[in-house]
Amino acid sequence: MRLKFDSVIDALLPVFATFAALGVGAIMLMALQVSPVEAYSALWEGAFGSKNAIAETLVKATPLLLVGLGICIAFRANVINIGAEGQMIIGGLMATQVGLVFTDLPGWVVIIMAIFAGFLGGAIWGGIPGALKAYFGVNEILSTVMMNAIAVQIMNFMLRGPMMDPAQLEKASKIPQTARLAEAFRLPRLVPTRLHLGFVFAIALAVLVYVLLWRTTLGYRIRAVGQNPHASRYGGIRVRRRIVTALLLSGAFAGIAGAIQVYGVNYRMITDGSSTGFTGGAGFNGIVAALFGQLHPIGTIPASIFFGALLVGANKMQRVVQIPAALITALNGLVVIFVVSSELWRRRRQKQRLLVDEGGEPPPSESPKTEKGASASEEVMA
Amino acid sequence: MMSPELIIVGVLSSTIRLATPYLYAAIGETFGQRSGVLNLGVDGQMLIGAFAAFYIAFTTGNLWLGVLAAVIVGALMGLAMAFVSVNLQAEQGISGIGFYLFGLGMSELLFKMLLGTVETVKGFPDLEIPFLSDIPYIGEIFFQHNIMVYGAFLLVPIAWFIFNKTTLGLKIRSVGENPEAADSLGVSVARVRYFTIILAGILSGVAGASMSIALLNVFQQNMTSGLGFIAVALVYFGAWRAFGVLAGALLFSFVNSLQLWMQVLNIPISTELAIMLPYILTIVVLVLTVSKVRPPSALTKPFDRGD
Amino acid sequence: MKKLLFVLVILALALTACGGAPAEEAPAEEAPATAEMFKVAVIMPSSITDLAFSQSMYDALLAIQEEMGGEEAMEIVYSEGMFVVDDAAAAIRDYATEGYDLVIAHGSQYGSSLQEIAPDFPETSFAWGTTLNTFSEEGITNVFAYEADSQEGGYVNGVIAASLSEAGVIGVVGPIEAGDASLYVKGFVAGAEATNPDVTVNVNWIGSFSDVALASEAANTHVAAGADVLTGTAQMVVGAVGVAEENGVLWFGTQSSQTSLAPDIVVANQVYDWTVALDEMITLIGEGTYGGTAYTITLENGGIVMDYNSAYDLPEDVKAAADAAVEGIIDGSIVIPVE
Questions:
Q1: Which CATH number does the domain housing residue C200 bear?
Q2: Residue C327: inside a domain, yes or no?
Q3: What is the number of domains present in chain C?
Q4: Both C144 and C233 in a single domain?
Q5: C135 belongs to a structural domain
Q6: C239: nearest CA in chain B?
Q7: B305, part of any domain
Q8: What is the pLDDT at residue B306?
Q9: Does C260 contact B at CB distance below 8 Å?
Q10: Residues C96 and C182 in one domain
Q11: Residues C249 and C313 placed together within one structural domain of the fold
């Protein structure tokens, strides 16, 4: 009984933190002479107020969840992947190419091939930094940041060159975009909204990643490398290979996210010269979602929906009360800071519980994100 | 055709200018990381600093007040970051992204409310160093820049000196390597980290100011365009040493100015390939010069005294 | 597993409890729009104050609002910074749902979204720029299209630039070689080379619409390479204008007027005046036609305006050459090759 009550409090902490952040936001809104009540009811309306709003929230959550799953794998292996933006782009490009080349195949065949192409593209773009880290000691933060920039240029090159829409080639305007995917290749929609099959697919993958990490030897090895590379090495695990595998898989999920964005939402690739134009920032927001989900694939599901709701709702709020979009960006930042800070209380309470329950020593104060997150979740899942 | 001397001088002086904001930001980040704190919010801090410096310089006409403003807002951002990562022990990568978003949004919001449109200021003028600036080629490359550029390059030996020759440097390094041991020796981990994070915030703010009132003399939303993230990457390139960071910043900027010149000289390569060159070469050079330096042991790990 | 499910439920409940009540008040506040009021919503990739593409549209809307009788006659709402395509799609759908008469998607990247959304709102008019595709071939009847022949003003700028350049070297800073930017640069180069066959025009694409620092350094590079006249397109060139001023070289602007940035050295700007196209769209909407027409703003129809900086003392023969170029483009004697 007490455990349940504690879980409620733990679960509510991020919610309280979000409200605290929105409270600070309210002050900013009042400074702009906007009623916070009106603004925030618009936010709610935009995220959950109608069937369409909920669908939009879930559409937004889909790439966050897919990227987040990859992040779970990488961070569990103690590898920091901030290259999901680039991995999404390369995955998206390769998936799009499949749809543009194999126009004669049945829709479902192309969709499966495209998702695989996305997987492959992301895996390559994640595998390179993985190999560079494992075999050349190149820090992955550096290489993934650089690889993001390189991916953007590849996208720009492809979209105004070899992959450009033939219809655009004839025109003077030359919009840097690919042709539109045939209707048969688009991911089916679930209800008469923009919600597409990709969301269900992402949920299924979340379960798969859970199984991978906690029910397979590969998963065990990846987590072992993350927790203690030296011990793993003595234990016969080839650490280098596991680092590559982790980044490769991590990239692959981001690549799938890219493929799903193309086949479920945009139906083509188009560039405005930046990565966010295509990814919507999912490569970064997915990291945040995964960490809020305690780096647990199942926990990442509600976390992604939460962030999807925040992003979609905030856009609605911008439209309704006509405030600069910049306020929304700042507000998102505040929410992230407040929620991540609230983790302290959750950890403290966890520690206290352990003390009370076992009457033993408090756990050693290690990095909360890997070790403790892992053990806590394992308890839950068992 | 253009003389090779002219091109070389052009490329190199361009390198010096491009490297300036990276240097401020990356040296600041080095202080933070050496003490065990990863700050991914550099870009946001730079933007806030850039706006503050620009706005104050624009309204008062005093550039030094602008720099002071950047120092103050940078310190405030650093203070907030320190509170979140030291006292609240928040996950650093993620809170950094939060600070980045906050800075990105806040700087644009203030820009819209206070200025409304893109304006320009008369930034720091080029300051020719007597005698040195007269040396053929060398003078033009190194000694005909504005004061913020010189400041960035002076910062490198200063940082080196602090890290390697002072007690403060020793404290910073020990807090980053083994906070428990440092703590048991009576070093306040919290105080050292507050110091480094605030210093990093100040230097990020100044990096922004070097763009908005010395090099570019405008403010525009998201004008750093992800430069702060490159600065973080350069700290890894430099393996947490001031001169290593300098080498990284110079290499990256050199290749970048080279690609600008390649386009001007009509060298037939695709523009996209040219633009990716600095990113590719930074990785390649790091692969070739395999450095086995490992990060500070306590990097990203909050310290809890357990009381 | 249970615990996580719990988290989900609690999260949903908490949000419902806190958000539910005020949400119900919202519809009541939307009432005041009168029947005659014309409501326009515009979705833009960058900021309304970018001194470039987005601002050109916002300024035009403000001008029309003035023309129509102020805020009582016409309501303008906008979503700026919508560089994420699917956010823009949500915005377009939302504005259409709320009954805006005209929803303008001011960016070529928004086309696919419009194609999908427009059929669901047959009573709403949409406009898409910059393109000439109204999707009429796909059976859609409520989308207008508009674009700017930016090569025309580019050509005129090129003529003046080549006439004023003493060094015979001109520098261009652009974002990505595509779309509007590519058209402008092609026109500019054509105009410069037609005026002085020996002129060298160096073009630098920096691969970004936001990297102010790289755009400025590109301008520095041009100056170091001997250029005494610069031009550039898109919102990140604001720093390059400063570089031009610092080095005392001339600048030519496009999209919006950039004279305010450096009144001493800006010679001329090609300014987009979308009112020409918007006026006609609004008239057609009033008559019950919601789309199907594509507009191109040109020098001829007054949608492209050559804006000269009055503070810059332009020699008369150069001004005459520029006017002749404008004439030639309008009467068709000058044909600008854009492939």
A1: 3.40.50.2300
A2: yes
A3: 2
A4: no
A5: yes
A6: B216
A7: no
A8: 64
A9: yes
A10: no
A11: yes
Residue A268 is classified by DSSP as: S
Best interface-test mutation with C: which of B14, B18, B119, B120 has the largest number of C CBs within 10 A?
B120
Residues spanned by the domain of C79: 36-148+274-297
Q: What is the average per-residue pLDDT within B72-94?
A: 92
Which residues in chain B touch residue C59, judged by CB atoms under 8 angstroms apart? none
Residue C257 and residue C203 share a domain:
yes
* Pairing of β C250-255 and β C266-272: parallel
d(CA C25, CA A301): 31
A89: closest CA among A246, A281, A247?
A: A281
Query: How far is Cα C148 from Cα C256, in angstroms, rounded to an integer?
Result: 12
Gap from C313 CA to chain A (nearest CA, Å): 34
Residue C297 forms beta bridges with which residues? C148
* Low-confidence spans in chain A with pLDDT less than 50: 360-382
pLDDT at C271: 94
Q: How far apart are CA A91 and CA A260, in angstroms?
A: 9
Could you list the residue range(s) of the whole structural domain that residue B42 is in?
A: 4-288
Indicate if C161 and C143 belong to the same structural domain. no
Same structural domain for residues C129 and C198?
no
pLDDT at B274 over 60: yes
Chain C residues inside the 8 Å CB shell of A152: 207
Asked if C176 and C216 sit in the same domain, the reply is yes
> Considering the domain boundaries, does residue B296 fall inside one?
no
Q: Do A368 and B237 touch (CB under 8 A)?
A: no
Long-range contacts of range B288-296, CB-CB < 8 Å, 24 or more positions apart?
A: B290/A136, B290/A137, B291/A137, B291/B239, B292/A137, B293/B239, B293/B240, B293/B241, B295/A139, B295/B33, B295/B236, B295/B240, B296/B33, B296/B34, B296/B35, B296/B36, B296/B173, B296/B176, B296/B177, B296/B240
Tell me what pLDDT residue A346 has.
78
Same domain, C226 and C314: yes
What are the chain A neighbours of B292 within 8 Å (beta carbons)? 137
Count how many residues are written for chain B.
Answer: 307
Q: What is the pLDDT along chain C (339 residues), one digit of tens a residue?
A: 444 444 444 444 444 344 333 333 333 334 444 457 899 999 998 888 888 889 999 999 999 999 888 888 999 999 988 888 888 998 999 899 989 999 999 998 898 889 889 999 999 999 998 888 889 888 899 999 999 999 999 999 999 999 999 999 999 999 998 888 999 999 999 999 999 999 999 999 999 888 999 999 999 999 999 999 999 998 899 989 999 998 999 999 999 999 999 999 999 999 999 999 999 999 999 999 999 999 999 999 999 999 999 999 999 999 999 999 999 999 999 999 887
Number of domains in chain B: 1
Domain ranges of chain A: 1-34+323-382, 61-317
The owner of tokens 């609004």 is C282
**Could you tell me which chain A residue has the CA closest to the CA of C90?**
A56
Could you tell me which chains touch chain A, where touching means 3 or more CB pairs under 8 A?
A: B, C
pLDDT for C33: 45
From B90, B101, B291, residue closest to A329, measured CB to CB: B101
Contacts of A312 in chain C (CB under 8 A): 90
Q: Is A41 touching C (CB cutoff 8 A)?
A: yes
The pLDDT, as a whole number, for residue B3 is: 83
The answer, for B247 touching chain A at a CB cutoff of 8 Å, is no
CATH number, domain of B260, equals 1.10.3470
CATH architecture group of domain A61-317: Orthogonal Bundle (1.10)
Neighboring chains of C (3 or more beta-carbon pairs < 8 A): A, B
From A63, A51, A44, select the one nearest A264 (Cα to Cα): A63
